[in-house]
Amino acid sequence: YGEARPGYAVFVFVTEPFSEAQQVKLDYPEEAGNDKIDVLKLNAIRKFNTGIYDYSMMTSIFTPVDHNTYPYSLKSTTSSQEWCGHSFTQFNLERNKYRLQEFSYFEQEGDEDKNVDVAILEDALFNHLRLNGGELPLGDIDLIPSTTYTRLKHENIRPTAASITRTQSESKNTYIVEYQHYNRTLTIDVEQAFPHKILAWSEN
Question: CA within 20 to 30 Å of 93's CA: 5, 25, 125, 186, which one?
Answer without folding.
Answer: 186
